[in-house]
Amino acid sequence: MLTATFGTAARWLLDFALPPRCSGCGTIVSQVHSFCADCWKGIEFLGNSGCSTCGLPLYATEQTTCGACLARAPRIARTRAAVAYDQLSRGLAIRLKYGRKIAIARTMARYMAPLVNEEGDRLLVPVPLHRTRLWSRGFNQSALVARELSRRLGIATDPLVLRRVRRTPPLKGMSYVQRRKIVAGAFRVRNKTAVAGKTVILVDDVLTTGSTAESCARVLKRAGAARVELVSWARVVKPSQLMR
Ligand SMILES: [Zn+2]
Ligand SMILES: [Zn+2]
Question: Which listed ligand is nearest to 71 at the C-alpha?
Fold first, then answer.
C-alpha cells in the first residue's frame, strides 16, 4: 500500500520535474501537452472545416452544409474532431488506453476544447464502455478526456448518465446497415432529468462511421435532450480506413 502510494507520488513528482515531452514521439519539447515540430507538420488538424453539421469535407458545389445533411438531418446536430485518424493520432488513442493516461487526455482536450459549442445548457457525456470492458480496463478513456475538457471549459461532465447495456463487437469492415443494427438498443439513459433540455456533447476518442454515437444520440433525444453534439479526438476521414 505504502509502496504504491510512494510510486504514484514519485511519478507525479517526476511528471513535473522532467521536461515536457512531445505527445506524438516523446522528444523533449518546450511546452506541456504539445507536439514537436516534426510531429506537428504530420498532423492533419480538422478544426472547424467541412460541413457545419457532420464536419465531413464539402464538395465545391456545397456551401456550408453537405448534401447528405440537407437531405436528412442527422441526430447529431454538430460533429467535430480535432485531427484526422492516422498513425500518430492512433498512437495517442492507444496510449490513452494503456499508457500515460492523464498526460495524453490533457493533450487531446487541449485540441478538442476549441471545437466545443459555446451555446446552450451544455453537458459533456463520454461514450460509455460496457461494464465488462470497464472492469477489465479499469477506466473509460473517453471519460478521462471528458473530465479534462470539463476542467478546461468549466462545463459539467456526467460519465454515468449513459449506460452501455449490450457489449458490441468491433464494427470494422461492416456496412452502414450492419453497424446500425448492431448498435441499436446498445445504450440506455440512466438519468433522464440530467439530460432533459440540455445540449449534450458526446465525447469520444476515435470516431469512425458514427453509428455508435448516433445510437447514443437516439436515446438521449428520447430522454429529452434538446440537442446532441459530438466532439472526438481523431476521425477516420478516408473511406478506405473504414473497411480495414
Ligand atoms: Zn514528436
Ligand atoms: Zn454534413
Answer: 2
